[in-house]
Design goal:
With about 550 residues, the protein is α/β, with parallel strands linked by helices. It is about 35% helix and about 20% strand. The chain has 18 helices and 23 strands. The strands form 5 sheets. A 9-stranded mixed beta sheet has the order 13-12-14-15-23-22-21-18-19, with helices on both faces. It has a 7-stranded parallel beta sheet with strand order 5-2-6-1-7-10-11, with helices on both faces. Helix 1 packs parallel to helix 3 and helix 1 crosses helix 9. The chain starts with a strand and ends with a helix. Bound molecules: glutamine. Glutamine binds next to strand 19.
C-alpha cells in the first residue's frame, strides 16, 4: 500500500496533548498490524532541545541513535513500542541549517532563497523522508506549537501543499480545547470554531477534530461543531480527561478514531485492533490496591515534565508489580542533614535524578548517605550514579574533598572526571556521549539479575565518567563496578551488593521503558522497594 501521511495540529492553547493523541492513534494502528511511526516538527530555532533548560521544555529525550529530542518522542515509543531516531524530530533550526548549507554549497546558484518555496520544500522533504524508506504504512506528523503562531506558518504551508499533492493518502487531525465556563455551567465551542477558521485561512481543512474537554460533549454540540467547521459529524471526537494517559487509545477506539482514519485514507482493514496486552496493563493498573511510595530527589521538581521518562518508567514498573505508584518529588536544594530523616523516612525507594551542575548537589549527597545507612532501595541515574560514587568516596573512603570535575575542576580526588573524548570538545550542542552503547554486566550482580542477561544496550547522555584509577579502592571498600562498556572500559553500573538494592547506572534506562516492554532494571528497583515496604510494615 501507499504510505499514508497523517498530520496532527493543535489550536486554542498549548499543552492539549497532541503527543498523546498522535501516540494513541499510532498505538491503535499498530495493534491492527500496520507499520507506524510518529515524527515531531518543532517550530523553534534550536537545532535540538539538548541546549534547553528543562524548565523551558521539559525533559530532553534521547533516541537510540543518539539524538537529543523532544519529550513527545518518549510518548511515541512508550505507546507504540517502535524505536524513534534522529529523523523523527525536526526543528526549524535544522530546516534552516540544511537550506543555508545548500545555499553555501551553491545548490541554488542564481536563485533568491526564500521561505516559500525553499524552506517549505525542505519541510516537505523531511516529512516524507521516513515514508521513503518503505518501512512504514503510516507516518504521523505532529506539528508543534499552536495554529496562529507566526513560527508555525511555514509548516502549515508545507502541510497544505502535501495535502494537495497526496490526496487520499493524507489526512489532517486538529486538536482543540472546549472550555467549561463554571459560572454559566456551559461548554463553549467558539474557540474551536476560531481555531478551525485560522487553519482554513492558511488553506487547510481538517478532516477530523479531537476536542479536549473536562465534561461530556453532547451529540447536539458535536453536530453544531461539525456544521460550523465543515467536518463530518462522526469525525468530531472528544478527548475527555481520564485518570491515565494510557487509557486514551481505548477512549479513541471507542469513538472509532482508528476506523475513521482508515476509511478516510482508503485503507482496507477488517476486525478490531489486538489490544490484549495493553488491556491487561490497564486492568492491572485499575485493580491495584496496594501502593508503593517512591521519592525522586532532584532540582527540577517544580516542573514534573523534567523527569517524564523516569516517572513513566516507575509507573510501568509499579503497574507490572500490581501496585499503585505514589510518586513524591523531593527538592534536592531543600534537603539537609537535619530534615533528611523526616523527608525520606516514609519512602519505600529513592531515585537520585540525573542533572547538570552544582545546584542541588549537596542535597543529593545527604539523601544518599541517609539511604545507604538506612538500607533503603536506591537508584542513581546518570548524575545520580555519579553522586553515589562521590558520596561513597567522601564518607566511606575518607576522601572528604572527592568530587566530579564538573563541580570542581581542581578537586584533589577526581573520582568522576571528564571523558577523554570530551577533552577536545568546545561546542555544547549535541556533543555529549549520546545514544545506545553496549554494556557487559557481571553475572550475579543485582543489575544482571534484573535484566536476566549479562549483555545489554542502554542510552546515554553525559560528558563525565567514573575514574577507573579509583576502581580498586572502591571495590575493596564494597562499591562494585558491575557494568562495563566492553569497547572503552567505561564504568556503566555501580552497586553495593551488601545493601538491599543500591544501584547506580551511568546510562538512562528510563528512555527505553514502554507499556509493553517495561524497563527490567526499573522493575527490579520497584520490586525491591515493595519488598522493603513489606518488611518495614511487618516490623
Ligand atoms: N552532568 C553529568 C555528566 O555530564 C550527568 C549528566 C546526566 O545526568 N544526564 O556527565
Amino acid at each position: 500500500m501507499d504510505t499514508k501521511y497523517i498530520f496532527v495540529t493543535g489550536g486554542v492553547v498549548s499543552s492539549l496533548g497532541k503527543g498523546i493523541i498522535s501516540s494513541s492513534l499510532a498505538c491503535l494502528l499498530k495493534a491492527r498490524g500496520f507499520r507506524v511511526t510518529i515524527q515531531k516538527f518543532d517550530p523553534y530555532i534550536n537545532i535540538d532541545p539538548g541546549t534547553l533548560n528543562p524548565y523551558e521544555h521539559g525533559e530532553c529525550y534521547v533516541t537510540e541513535d543518539g539524538h537529543e529530542a523532544d519529550l513527545d518522542l518518549g510518548h511515541y515509543e512508550r505507546f507504540t513500542n517502535v524505536r524513534t531516531s534522529k529523523a523523527n524530530n525536526v526543528t526549524t533550526g535544522r530546516i534552516y541549517q540544511s537550506v543555508i548549507d545548500k545555499e553555501r554549497r551553491g545548490d541554488y546558484l542564481g536563485k533568491t532563497v526564500q521561505i516559500v518555496p525553499h524552506i517549505t520544500d525542505e519541510i516537505k522533504r523531511r516529512v516524507k523522508f521516513l515514508g521513503k524508506t518503505g518501512n512504514y504504512d503510516f507516518i504521523i506528523t505532529e506539528i508543534g506549537g499552536t495554529v496562529g503562531d507566526i513560527e508555525s506558518l511555514p509548516y502549515l504551508e508545507a502541510v497544505r501543499q502535501l495535502r494537495w499533492e497526496l490526496g487520499q493518502n493524507s489526512l489532517c487531525v486538529h486538536l482543540t480545547y472546549v472550555p467549561y465556563i463554571a459560572a454559566a455551567k456551559e461548554l463553549k465551542t467558539k474557540p474551536t470554531q476560531h481555531s478551525v477558521k485560522a487553519l482554513q485561512e492558511v488553506g487547510i481543512q481538517p478532516d477530523i477534530l479531537v476536542l479536549r474537554t473536562e465534561k461530556e460533549i453532547s451529540q447536539e454540540m458535536r453536530r453544531k461543531i461539525a456544521l460550523f467547521c465543515n467536518v463530518a459529524q462522526d469525525s468530531v471526537v472528544q478527548s475527555k480527561d481520564v485518570n491515565s494517559i494510557y487509557k486514551v487509545p481505548l477512549m479513541m477506539h471507542a469513538q472509532h478514531l482508528d476506523e475513521i482514519v482508515l476509511r478516510k485514507t482508503a485503507t482496507p482493514f477488517e476486525g478490531e485492533p489486538h489490544m490484549d496486552r495493553w488491556l491487561e496493563f490497564i486492568d492491572k493498573m485499575d485493580k491495584a490496591t496496594e501502593t508503593v511510595t517512591i521519592g525522586v530527589v532532584g532540582k527540577y521538581v517544580e516542573l514534573q515534565d523534567a523527569y517524564k521518562s523516569i516517572s513513566e518508567a516507575l509507573f510501568h514498573a509499579a503497574t507490572y508489580a500490581c501496585h499503585k505508584l505514589n510518586l513524591i518529588y523531593i527538592h534536592s536544594e531543600k534537603l539537609d542533614a537535619e530534615n533528611v530523616g523526616e523527608k525520606l523516612s516514609g519512602l519505600d525507594g529513592v531515585v537520585i535524578a540525573p542533572g547538570f551542575g552544582q545546584r542541588g548537589i549537596e542535597g543529593k549527597f545527604v539523601a544518599l548517605k541517609w539511604c545507604r545507612e538506612n538500607d533503603v532501595p536506591t537508584f542513581g541515574i546518570c548524575l545520580g550514579m555519579q553522586c553515589m560514587v562521590i558520596e561513597f568516596a567522601r564518607d566511606v573512603l575518607g576522601l572528604s574533598e572527592a568530587n566530579s570535575t564538573e563541580m570542581n575542576p581542581h578537586t584533589p580526588h577526581k573520582v568522576i572526571d571528564l571523558m577523554e573524548e570530551q577533552k577536545t570538545i568546545s561546542d555544547l550542542g549535541g556533543t555529549m556521549r549520546l545514544g545506545a552503547y553496549d554494556c557487559h554486566l557481571e553475572s550475579g550482580s543485582k543489575a544482571a539479575e534484573a535484566y536476566g542477561t549479562t549483555d545489554i544496550r542502554e542510552r546515554h547522555r553525559h560528558r563525565f565518567e567514573f575514574n577507573n584509577e579509583y576502581r580498586e579502592r572502591f571495590e575493596q571498600a564494597g562499591m562494585k563496578c558491575v557494568g562495563i562498556n566492553p569497547a572503552t572500559g567505561l564504568v556503566e553500573v555501580v552497586e553495593l551488593p551488601e545493601k538491599r538494592w543500591f544501584v547506580g547506572t551511568q546510562y538512562h534506562p528510563e528512555y527505553s521503558s514502554t507499556v509493553l516492554e517495561p524497563s527490567p532494571i526499573f522493575r527490579s528497583f520497584v520490586n525491591a522497594a515493595i519488598a522493603c515496604h513489606d518488611i518495614k510494615n511487618k516490623e
